[in-house]
Amino acid sequence: MAVILGIESSCDETAAALIATDRRVLAHRLAGQEAEHRPYGGVVPEIAARAHVEAVTPLVEAALADAGIGLGDVDAIAATAGPGLIGGVMVGLVTAKALALAAGKPLVAVNHLEGHALSPRLADPALAYPYLLLLVSGGHCQLLLVGGVGRYRRLATTIDDAAGEAFDKTAKLLGLGFPGGPAVEKAAALGDPKAVPLPRPLVGRAEPHFSFAGLKSAVLRARDAGTYSAQDIAASFQAAVIDCLIDRTKRAIAGAPGATALVVAGGVAANGAIRGALQTLAHARDLPFVAPPLWLCTDNAAMIGWAGAERFMAGLTDPLDVAARARWPL
Ligand code: KG4
Ligand code: ZN
Question: Which ligand sits closest to the CA of 269?
């Protein structure tokens, strides 16, 4: 049994966690930056990087204290090395490198998407490879066949916006506040999903991909029409996103007969209506459905610690000069 320190800083959450290779979460700490970014209606990279600098060391110390261990008891140090806002990624990665050097521990550079992709396995020991993963976050919308650590076959991706980005832009257009996803979900619960006719981009098409830009433009037109409530637009938007996700996922299931389960991960997987629709689809296709608990869907360090643990167990560590990467496809 090994213990991995995980550090996450690729967007607007600074986080540190201690994860055991037997899946125990010994500690997980998170500092959000919502209040700092709210006045701008979105994440400001410079503000994010500075906030990560202030938060990261106290969070690592707090996580170690929570777990009742010292840095010497840790077997490896894992940090997000990309993709993400480069200033923030550098803060977490440099911190991890300094700790690894000082304590003489191996460094594991984790792809943030791999963190999301493997997070369901932290929560569910029974989840076996290969599984079909819908990865839906603020920056990505992909269908992947996850065959093992470092083995990802991308079946579909978005040709324009990510699903979370569409939620965030819709929230901004409707004046629902920041962060957008949870705000849209809350408003949608009070609205009529059939009230506003909105497009379902690429639904029914043979090509495997996603598209959400046209949906965002349609939301803008519905808002400017002045005849719909924000709740009705939010509910109709969410229903359209669900139809797109389900249609594309159905297509992927048909093309991945060996998948052990349908799995969802990433910040948008925190959406109850989306989880419910995916669960219904999995049930109809006789597939187990796996979704991590909500705290493990949005950005956190436990998923980075767990991906680090899977890599460490596979003998995959990285040199101290490994680079931070703004772009890093899985
Ligand atoms: O995975 P994540 O925390 O960060 C990235 O790696 O991008 O995902 C953040 C995204 C944001 O776009 C946020 O609006 C969305 O996930 N999100 C949601 C919900 N909670 C977070 N979208 C829809 N419904 C939610 N409840
Ligand atoms: Zn993320």
Answer: 1
